[in-house]
Design brief:
By secondary structure, the protein is of the alpha/beta class. Helix content is about 35%, strand content about 25%.
Length: about 300
C-alpha cells in the first residue's frame, strides 16, 4: 500500500525547487511513499517592503511552516538552513541536511562588471546586513540600496531600478539555472557567507521515527559537520538578521577549518578569526571561535547593536 508524506515549504520558485528536490530524493529512495508538496506563506513572504533587519530576527521565513509541522498538517518542512534560528522549537528537530551547494555569495551586475571594478559611488542592492557591512568594509565608496523579494524579483529590479549590482547566494542562482547572470563568485575573504548558506534543512517532528527513517537517508555527514560549527558560532553570538554575523566551515578529509566574523552595522569595524581542528569537533570549534571573537571585542558590537534597536 502506498503511504503519504506531506512536505511543507514557502511558495517562491526557489523554495518550490528545494521542496521538489527533496520530494524526488525521498521517492527515489522510498518508492513505497507518495510525496506531495504544500505551500505555506510566512511573515517574511507577506512583508516585502521592509528590510529584514527591521522586521525582526531569524525565523521570518520558517515559523508558520514549523507551526504546520507541529500541528501534523505536514510531515516534513524544507527550509534554507541559513533562514533557520540556531535553536529549534520544542518538539521539532533537524532530520537531515543534504549535500551542500556552493555556499559563496555572487555578484550580478549590469554589463557583468566585477565588484572591484564598479565605479565609485556605484549602488549595490541587498537587504542583508551581513553582505552590506562586508561590502562597505571592502569598498567604503559604494552605496547600499535595500532590496527585498524573491530571486526573480531581485533580478528584474537590477534592470528596472537605479542599481548597479546585486549580491545573491550562489546556491539559489545555480538551483534555478541562472548561472549566466553571474558576474563574479565573491571570494569568502571579501564576503564571508552566512551560517548554513547553500545547505537545505529537512525538519521533522522529534518523536516521528517513521519520518526520521526516511529523512536520515538524505543526510550528508560532511555537510552536517560543516554547518554544525557555523551554527554553534551563530548561537553563541546570539545571531539574527539584526546582527551582521558570518561563518564558513570547510571540511578537508577529517580536518575542519572554520572562519567567523562579526561587524558593526556601518561596516567600519569587522572582527574576524579562524580556527582549525578535527571535523567531528566542529560544534565545539564553533563555540571556541565565538569565544575568540568575544575576546577580540564582539561583545562591544553586540551591545552597540542591542542599544540601537532598544
Amino acid at each position: 500500500m502506498t503511504r503519504q508524506i506531506k512536505i511543507g515549504t514557502r511558495g517562491s520558485r526557489l523554495a518550490l525547487w528545494q521542496a521538489g528536490y527533496i520530494k524526488s530524493e525521498i521517492e527515489k529512495l522510498n518508492p513505497q511513499y507518495n510525496v506531495t508538496v504544500t505551500t505555506i506563506k510566512t511573515k517574511g513572504d507577506i512583508i516585502t517592503d521592509v528590510p529584514l533587519a527591521k522586521i525582526g530576527g531569524k525565523g521570518l521565513f520558517v515559523k508558520e511552516i514549523e507551526l504546520a509541522l507541529l500541528n501534523n498538517q505536514i510531515d516534513i518542512a524544507v527550509h534554507s538552513l541559513k533562514d533557520m534560528p540556531s535553536v529549534m522549537p520544542n518538539g521539532l528537530c533537524i532530520g537531515a541536511i543534504p549535500k551542500r551547494e556552493n555556499p559563496q555569495d555572487i555578484l550580478v551586475s549590469k554589463n557583468n562588471i566585477k565588484l572591484s571594478e564598479l565605479k565609485t559611488g556605484a549602488v549595490i542592492g541587498t537587504s542583508s546586513l551581513r553582505r552590506a557591512t562586508q561590502i562597505l568594509f571592502y569598498r567604503p565608496d559604494l552605496k547600499i540600496s535595500p532590496l527585498r523579494g524573491n530571486l526573480d524579483t531581485r533580478l528584474k529590479k537590477l534592470q528596472t531600478e537605479a542599481i548597479d549590482g546585486i549580491i545573491l547566494a550562489a546556491a539559489g542562482i545555480k538551483r534555478l539555472g541562472y548561472q549566466k547572470h553571474i558576474a563574479e563568485y565573491i571570494d569568502p575573504e571579501i564576503i564571508l557567507p552566512a551560517a548554513g548558506q547553500g545547505a537545505l534543512c529537512v525538519q521533522i517532528r522529534q518523536e516521528d521515527n517513521k519520518i526520521l527513517s526516511v529523512a536520515e537517508k538524505l543526510n550528508s555527514e560532511t555537510t552536517q559537520y560543516e554547518v554544525a560549527g557555523e551554527r554553534a558560532l551563530l548561537h553563541k553570538l546570539e545571531g539574527d538578521c539584526q546582527i551582521p554575523i558570518a561563518a564558513f566551515g570547510k571540511a578537508n578529509n577529517n580536518k575542519y577549518a572554520l572562519t567567523g566574523l562579526i561587524a558593526n552595522t556601518s561596516g567600519k569595524i569587522i572582527i574576524k578569526n579562524q580556527i582549525n581542528g578535527n571535523l567531528k569537533d566542529a560544534a565545539k570549534l564553533g563555540l571556541k571561535l565565538a569565544e575568540k571573537l568575544i575576546d577580540m571585542g564582539a561583545d562591544d558590537i553586540l551591545q552597540e547593536i542591542k542599544n540601537s534597536v532598544a
